[in-house]
Design a protein that fits this description.
Blueprint lengths: L27 H7 L5 H8 L4 E2 L1 H10 L5 H16 L4 E6 L2 E6 L4 E7 H4 L9 E4 L1
Parallel strand pairs: 1-4, 2-5
Antiparallel strand pairs: 2-3, 3-4
Length: 132
C-alpha cells in the first residue's frame, strides 16, 4: 500500500504535495532561525500570559505613584492567571496595598487603585477577587 501524500493520483490538480526535507536539510523552524528571525513559537512564548495595560490604567498608575516593579508585575500576572484558571472574566487582583481591575479574557489591566483611594471606590461588574 502506498502513502497518499506520495501518490500523484490522489493529489488534486494544481496542488503540489508538501515537500519533506531530505536527510541533512533543515525544517521551517531551523530555516527561520538561520535567516535571523525568531520562530512563531518563540514569539508566542514571549508574549503569552503577559498583561497589557489600558491607557486609563497607565494614567492612574502614574498619577497615584503605584509601584510596578518586576515583583509586583509577576504577582499581578500570577493572580490574573489564577483567576483565569477558575473561569473568571473580570477580577480584582490585590497586590500588597494596590487593587488592579483586570479583564481576564483580554489579559488587560483596566484600572489600578492604591490604598488611599480604595475607600472611595466601588468595584462593579467583577466576578472574582484574588489576593496575590
Amino acid at each position: 500500500m502506498t502513502d497518499a501524500a506520495h501518490n500523484p493520483a490522489l493529489v488534486p490538480p494544481g496542488l503540489a504535495p508538501a515537500a519533506t526535507p531530505a536527510v541533512g536539510q533543515t525544517s521551517g523552524a531551523d530555516s527561520a532561525r538561520r535567516l535571523g528571525g525568531p520562530t512563531f513559537q518563540e514569539i508566542f512564548r514571549q508574549h503569552a500570559g503577559k498583561l497589557q495595560f489600558s491607557q486609563h490604567a497607565l494614567q492612574r498608575i502614574e498619577r497615584r505613584g503605584i509601584d510596578l516593579s518586576d515583583g509586583t508585575l509577576g504577582r499581578l500576572e500570577a493572580g490574573a492567571a489564577r483567576a483565569a484558571s477558575k473561569g473568571s472574566r473580570d477580577s480584582v487582583v490585590f497586590v500588597d496595598n494596590t487593587a488592579f481591575v483586570v479583564s481576564v479574557r483580554n489579559q488587560t489591566v483596566i484600572t489600578a487603585v492604591d490604598r488611599e483611594h480604595m475607600r472611595e471606590h466601588v468595584f462593579t461588574n467583577i466576578d472574582s477577587a484574588v489576593i496575590a
